Every structure is written in structure tokens, then in C-alpha cells.
């Protein structure tokens, strides 16, 4: 981070101005806890170790903006009552804005820190080396491996999601048939995902970024075994 900051200061690299948007399914522990504390704007200020929140990859300064697909217009504690699990949409700001956000939101009566609406609407991840056009939504989700070692989706050689199993980890995270996988564990996906699967050993979670709404024209491979991979 110090190296990046030096590059930003001397103008060699422009700091990112947009938050990353992630979708994370969070389940209560056996003690009935999620394991995080939030400020008045549903921004996380503490994540406890060895809790579902920590295991899901949540971190301080993440802000919860949706719960179960609905915009959060109150405190999340009100929405979480009686629910064993929540599907959270997270706004994760770039680290160089942490101090700005803290100064803004620590003032009594403040409103949540907001990013430039026009820039946010036209966000494209330039660091990925892949263009995301108008009308394209990008979504990053954390998938937890299910019993049996699969995440519950089928992917083509063009990295297009062909099928999502009902009630699977992929389904619960909000992935849909037609989504195109463009990143894996925050790295651009530059080759067919089915070719990578035998070479990759995953831990408990996998981070997938998809583009939704992209115009797509697929050329079928010879056989289904050759064109798809199941996660």
C-alpha cells in the first residue's frame, strides 16, 4: 500500500475512485451471531475473529447497501431479526479513501459517504484489462464450497454461466445463467475457466466477478465435455 501511495502522489498511477461491489451470503454462527459491528450508516467498523463475518471476507469500512436484494433504508439490525442468513450487497471503498470516509461519517448527524453518482454508474474495472460497456452490471460474489466440493454452477469454455443449481451456493449468492465470469479471486480471467479448474486448489471460499447483460455470441464446441466445466 505504501508503494501505491507513493506512485499516486508523484502522479505515476491514479488512485481508484470507485468502490468494489460484492455480494456475500452471511450465516449466523451456532451462537446466533454474525460477528461484526457497524456504525450508524451500516458501515462495518469491526469484524471479530473466528466468526461467519470473518470467514466470509468482510472487513472494516465495508458498507452494507442491500439485504436480500433490497436497498437498505434503515439499520441492518432491524432487517436481521429472526433470519438465520442474509444475502448482503457490500460497497467496499478503496483504502486511500478510508480517512476521508471516517472524517465524513464521524460527524454527528452525518449522512453516508457517497461516491460520484455519474462515475459510479459508468464504472468499468480498468485494471482488469476487460471493457464493460453501457448497460453491463458487474458483480463480485464470495462462494462457499458445498459438501461434495462443488459450488453449484456450470460454465462454458467462453466463461459463460450455463446453469445454476437451485438452492446451491451460486444460487444463494445471486449468480444467474447468462452471467459471464470475468475475474477469479480478483484476477482477470484470460482463459477458459474449465481449463483452469483441474489446476486450481481452492480453500473454503472462491471470489468470482461476473458481467451481467453483456451481448454474447457463443460458438458451440464439439461436445459438452469439451465446452463446459462444473464448479
What can you tell me about this protein's structure?
The protein is of the alpha+beta class. It is built from 8 helices and 13 strands. The strands form 3 sheets. An 8-stranded mixed beta sheet has the order 5-4-6-1-7-12-10-11. The protein has a 3-stranded antiparallel beta sheet with strand order 9-8-13. It has a two-stranded antiparallel sheet with strand order 2-3. Strand 4 and strand 5 form a beta hairpin.
Q: What secondary-structure arrangement, pairings included, does this model have?
A:
Layout: H1 2-9, E1 20-27, E2 36-38, E3 44-47, H2 52-55, E4 63-67, E5 70-71, H3 76-80, E6 85-92, H4 98-105, H5 117-121, E7 137-144, E8 153-156, E9 161-164, H6 169-172, E10 180-184, E11 187-188, H7 193-196, E12 205-212, H8 224-227, E13 228-230
Parallel strand pairs: 1-7
Antiparallel strand pairs: 1-6, 2-3, 4-5, 4-6, 7-12, 8-9, 8-13, 10-11, 10-12
Poorly predicted segments: 117-132, 216-229
Main sheet?
A: 8 strands, mixed
Tally of strands: 13
SS-derived structural category: alpha+beta
Shape: globular
Give helix % range: 10-25%
How would you spell out the order of helices and strands?
A: HEEEHEEHEHHEEEHEEHEHE
Distance between the termini: 33 Å
Amino acid at each position: 500500500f505504501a508503494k501505491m501511495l507513493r506512485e499516486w502522489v508523484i502522479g505515476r498511477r491514479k488512485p481508484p475512485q470507485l468502490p468494489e461491489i460484492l455480494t456475500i451470503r452471511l450465516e449466523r454462527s451456532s451462537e446466533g451471531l454474525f460477528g461484526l459491528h457497524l456504525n450508524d450508516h451500516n458501515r462495518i467498523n469491526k469484524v471479530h475473529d473466528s466468526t461467519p463475518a470473518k470467514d466470509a471476507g468482510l472487513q472494516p469500512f465495508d458498507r452494507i447497501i442491500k439485504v436480500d436484494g433490497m436497498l437498505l433504508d434503515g439499520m441492518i439490525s432491524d432487517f436481521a431479526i429472526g433470519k438465520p442468513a442474509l444475502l448482503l450487497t457490500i460497497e467496499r471503498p478503496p483504502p486511500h479513501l478510508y480517512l476521508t470516509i471516517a472524517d465524513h461519517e464521524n460527524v454527528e448527524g452525518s449522512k453516508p459517504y457517497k461516491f460520484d453518482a455519474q462515475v459510479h454508474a459508468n464504472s468499468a474495472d480498468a485494471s482488469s484489462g476487460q471493457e464493460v460497456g453501457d448497460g453491463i452490471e458487474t458483480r463480485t460474489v464470495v462462494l462457499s464450497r458445498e459438501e461434495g466440493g462443488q459450488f453449484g454452477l456450470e460454465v462454458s469454455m467462453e466463461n459463460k454461466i450455463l446453469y445454476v443449481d437451485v438452492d446451491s451456493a451460486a444460487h444463494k449468492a445471486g449468480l444467474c445463467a447468462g452471467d459471464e465470469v470475468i475475474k477469479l479471486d480478483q484476477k482477470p480471467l484470460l482463459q477458459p475457466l474449465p481449463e483452469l479448474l483441474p489446476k486450481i486448489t481452492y480453500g473454503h471460499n472462491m471470489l468470482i466477478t461476473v458481467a451481467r447483460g453483456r451481448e454474447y455470441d457463443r460458438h458451440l464446441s464439439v461436445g459438452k465435455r469439451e465446452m463446459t466445466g462444473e464448479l
